[in-house]
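Weekly structure sync, notes
Attendees: PL (lead), two postdocs, one rotation student
Agenda item 3: pending single-chain targets
PL asked that the sequence for the first pending target be pasted directly into the notes so everyone works from the same version. It is reproduced below exactly as submitted, 181 residues in total.
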Amino acid sequence: MNIRIISGTHGGRKIAAPNNDRTHPMGERVRNALFNVLKDDISDATVLDAFAGTGSLGLEALSRGAAFATFIEKDRAAQAVLIGNIALLHEEPRTKVIRTSVSGWLDTYGVTPTYDIIFADPPYHQPQFSTVRRLFGLLKPGGVMVLSHPGKGEVPSRPGVVVVDNRSYGGANLTIYRRDY
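Predicted structure, written out during the meeting:
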């Protein structure tokens, strides 16, 4: 299976996706709508692609002008595909791949505001909202976090981080947060 980078320096390039049901890459229509919302936040941004899978969100951000992307992925098959996608696009100098779970990384990393944009796209069968809630602490003031989740139920929240948008695309729901300045 292939996924297309939509726009920017890598626009039109295809990247790989694992051939399994453990990874659910965000569809092109949803990604395009998301990046249209984020267009003013992407330039020179420092990005965290948590639950990275193929890396399509972080790689799309780099293609559109982000300065650096950190990818966190625990699945070995997805890691191999992610590393291959980074190499295919020659983005090694602007990326870092962390091979562990998001919660494991948070336990060792500590919480310091570091990122302008965080993409949190956990597996739909295991949304890990307690882990997602911890990611809010990594947002720089004014930073944006995008949570992809199934259904329209409760989503995580934290004082100082407000929901600025909710969008639904069939089975995919996006909640967009912004940290107060």
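Discussion points:
- DSSP finds five helices and nine strands in the chain.
- The mean pLDDT is 91.
Action: rotation student to compare against the earlier draft before next sync.
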